Amino acid sequence: MKVLLIKPMEHPQVVDIENSLKEFYRILDCDCITATYPWEERAALVTDDNGLFTEKSFSRYIPELEQPIKGNFFICGLGEEDFAELSQDLIRKFKERFWVPEAFVSMFGQMAVIQMDDGTKPE
Questions:
Q1: Residue among 74, 70, 87, 81 at smallest CA distance from 9
Q2: Res. 85: pLDDT tops 90
Q3: What is the Cα–Cα distance from 60 to 71, expressed in whole angstroms?
Q4: In this structure, what DSSP letter does residue 72 have?
Q5: Is the full-model pTM beyond 0.90?
């Protein structure tokens, strides 16, 4: 199934993965996942459940969840009872939204998010 994979300090990429827990663990480099549904669209945000408690790099801040994501994460579609391939429209939408990598800096006990725009645009 096609999903949008987002890694720290990289542009999102469309990848074709097997729809299995083992594969999810592999691409997220973890042993426990969490799926959240912060958007109106039929899309799931799949992350490392313990990511915030690891040494992984911060990836992106998700305002709808009011928290950052550490490490890799992916966005997939939703089927009747399982994850599904992300539609082309949603791939375009989320690729554009997460195109610019973000750096996270701790200053005065607060976390600042800096967009690292390299001037490129998604295809």
A1: 70
A2: yes
A3: 9
A4: -
A5: yes
